[in-house]
Design brief:
Order of helices and strands: HHHHH
Strand content: under 5%
Number of strands: 0
Largest sheet: none
Helix content: 55-70%
Structural class: mainly alpha
Radius of gyration: 14 Å
Length: 85
């Protein structure tokens, strides 16, 4: 039996990190979401670094993450919205 193939594209990794941010944001233990230098900040920083590989500057990456988190939309939809203004 062949193991299922995982999507390891940059887009899939970014969406996975976004979903992890959403889970941390809703975590039962909110210290995960709010502690300085905690898991939420680390995952957000990893997501920014992934977006920077796609030639997104830090400010635009932060805007896209904010839009995706508040609008409950995909990261790519948020990136498109950020570009459109």
């Amino acid at each position: 039996m062949t193991a299922p193939t995982l999507d390891t594209s940059t887009r899939a990794i970014a969406e996975h990190l976004l979903e992890t941010l959403r889970l941390l944001n809703r975590a039962d233990d909110q210290r995960l979401a709010v502690s300085q230098g905690g898991a939420y900040g680390d995952v957000r920083e990893a997501l920014i670094k992934v977006l920077e590989t796609q030639r997104w500057g830090r400010a635009m990456a932060n805007e896209a993450i904010y839009l995706a988190m508040t609008g409950d939309i995909s990261l790519w939809d948020a990136m498109y919205a950020a570009r459109m203004g």
